[in-house]
């Protein structure tokens, strides 16, 4: 006799290991994992999930942006669906667990339920989300925004960093239809909740000796990806200091001044991060005996608080003017991009903490400094939660090292919360 409820059903961890192994093969670039957004690696990963889901007898569909939805039908299909999922693309030379762990966990949960004949009260849907990593296109959360009809025509003309072809072209190549960008694939009113499992991308869980993090909120961002400081190229020996327009000095002073602003904000109790991930002279002109006339840099500010992001951006604009004037250089910040912070659902957070305690899973509440697709769901009014799984060596690098025992703990917790919400 088929079980009606999946409360005690173990996720299919043999399938999970097989999926990780396949994704490793699909994405390996010789050093790490590269599955470009709307590239061959992401496409092959999506096709593999689709194939496995079909073999399990699960329903499969895609939307216009080729997000993938895998559904175990519930007894009452008119009820709002319980959802889980994450992304399958990676940064260049990244790791095999960032994003993929959430898809693997969701599919292993559904496979376990199918194996035991479990039937939820409502649909439970796994979403394999396209193009979460903005390393490829200068647009945040492409797949989840597309699902809710939040992408605009300008975003579809964004060009991928390696191919220089537009997002619309890449979507079409994957089998989608960018002309339907105003047609959402998801309606918030038809979603009971969204729970995303993801590896932690920092050292907090390692430092706290906890297997799982239960996320309280997700940072938003304020970014200048392609800022430039322009001076004058000149001979290093023949140009006295008074006559120099040194782009390196201007850029260095800009970095130092913004860093000091960060320290002052933290001293006042503000919570944010500031990163200059790119800082480079023009390799075609730079030379040890030449005063640099151009420096390119990026500015990445993140915070869970929108007011603080706005305040810091205003300070950046003021400081840029000051530095440019004081150092006889020109500073062009370029396009301003960003994302909105999101708060996770208090009720689901409390339920997860209780489930973790009852299951003797070591868990702590913590914020997410990185952005995730869950932010889009939360800001669309969907009750949303995130689970972090302990992971050594950070993420966005080939050395990601999630212990499978920790993945099992996080997946069991995911299974329990999805079961509770679909009871």
The percentage of residues in β strands lies in: 15-25%
Task: Tell me which CATH architecture of the largest domain applies here.
Answer: 3-Layer(aba) Sandwich
What is the CATH homology-level superfamily of the largest domain? Zn peptidases
Number of continuous helical runs? 12
Overall outline: elongated
Reading off the top of the CATH hierarchy, the class of the largest domain is best stated as Alpha Beta
Helix share, percent: 25-40%
Query: CATH topology of the largest domain, which one?
Result: Aminopeptidase
> How would you classify the helix and strand content by structural class?
alpha+beta
Report the mean per-residue pLDDT as an integer.
95
The parts where pLDDT drops under 50 for at least 5 residues are: none
What is the number of independent domains?
2
- What is the radius of gyration computed over CA atoms, rounded to a whole number of angstroms? 23 Å
What does this molecule look like?
The protein has 423 residues and is an alpha+beta fold. The chain has two domains: 13-219 and 342-421, Zn peptidases (Aminopeptidase, 3-Layer(aba) Sandwich); 221-339, Alpha-Beta Plaits, CATH 3.30.70. The chain is 35% helix and 21% strand. It has helices at 13-27, 40-55, 100-116, 142-147, 153-156, 167-173, 204-208, 247-267, 306-326, 346-358, 374-379, 404-421, and strands at residues 59-62, 68-72, 81-87, 124-129, 191-199, 212-218, 220-230, 234-235, 273-275, 279-281, 290-291, 294-303, 330-332, 336-339, 342-343, 363-368, 384-389. Strands 1, 2, 3, 4, 5, 6, 15, 16 and 17 form a nine-stranded mixed β-sheet that branches. It starts with 12 loop residues before the first helix and ends with a helix. It holds the Pfam family Peptidase_M20. This is Hydantoinase/carbamoylase family amidase.
């Amino acid at each position: 006799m088929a079980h009606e409820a999946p409360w005690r059903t173990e996720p299919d961890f043999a399938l999970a290991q097989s999926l990780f192994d396949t994704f490793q093969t699909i994405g390996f670039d010789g050093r790490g994992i590269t599955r470009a957004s709307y590239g061959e690696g992401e496409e092959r990963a999506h096709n593999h999930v689709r194939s496995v889901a079909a073999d399990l007898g699960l329903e499969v569909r895609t939307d216009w942006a080729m997000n993938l939805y895998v559904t175990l039908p519930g007894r009452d299909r008119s009820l709002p669906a319980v959802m889980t999922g994450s992304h399958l693309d990676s940064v260049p030379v990244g790791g095999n667990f960032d994003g993929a762990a959430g898809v693997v966990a969701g599919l292993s949960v559904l496979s376990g339920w199918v194996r035991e004949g479990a039937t939820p009260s409502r649909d439970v849907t796994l979403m394999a989300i396209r193009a979460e990593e903005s390393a490829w296109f200068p647009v945040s959360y492409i797949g989840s925004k597309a699902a809710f009809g939040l992408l605009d025509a300008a975003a579809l003309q964004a060009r991928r960093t390696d191919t220089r072809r537009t997002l619309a072209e890449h979507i079409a190549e994957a089998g989608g239809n960018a002309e339907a960008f105003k047609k959402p694939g998801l309606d918030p009113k038809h979603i009971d909740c969204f729970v995303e499992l993801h590896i932690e991308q920092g050292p907090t869980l390692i430092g706290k000796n906890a297997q799982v993090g239960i996320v309280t909120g997700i940072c938003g961002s304020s970014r200048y990806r392609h800022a430039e400081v322009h001076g004058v190229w000149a001979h290093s020996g023949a140009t006295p200091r008074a006559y120099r327009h040194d782009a390196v000095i201007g850029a260095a002073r800009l970095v130092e001044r913004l860093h000091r602003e960060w320290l002052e904000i933290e001293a006042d109790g503000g919570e944010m991060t500031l990163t200059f991930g790119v800082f480079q002279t023009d390799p075609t002109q730079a030379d040890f005996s030449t005063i640099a006339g151009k420096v390119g840099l990026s500015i990445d500010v993140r915070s869970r608080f929108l007011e603080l992001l706005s305040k810091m951006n205003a300070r950046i604009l003021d400081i840029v003017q000051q530095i440019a004037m004081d150092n006889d250089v020109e500073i062009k910040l370029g396009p301003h991009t960003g994302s909105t912070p999101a708060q996770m659902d208090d009720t689901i957070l409390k339920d997860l903490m209780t489930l973790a305690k009852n299951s003797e899973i070591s868990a702590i509440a913590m914020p997410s400094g990185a952005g995730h697709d869950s932010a889009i769901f939360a800001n669309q009014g969907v009750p949303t939660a995130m689970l972090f799984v302990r992971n050594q060596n950070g993420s966005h690098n080939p050395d990601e090292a999630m212990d499978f025992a920790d993945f099992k703990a996080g997946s069991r917790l995911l299974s329990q919360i999805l079961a509770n919400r679909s009871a």
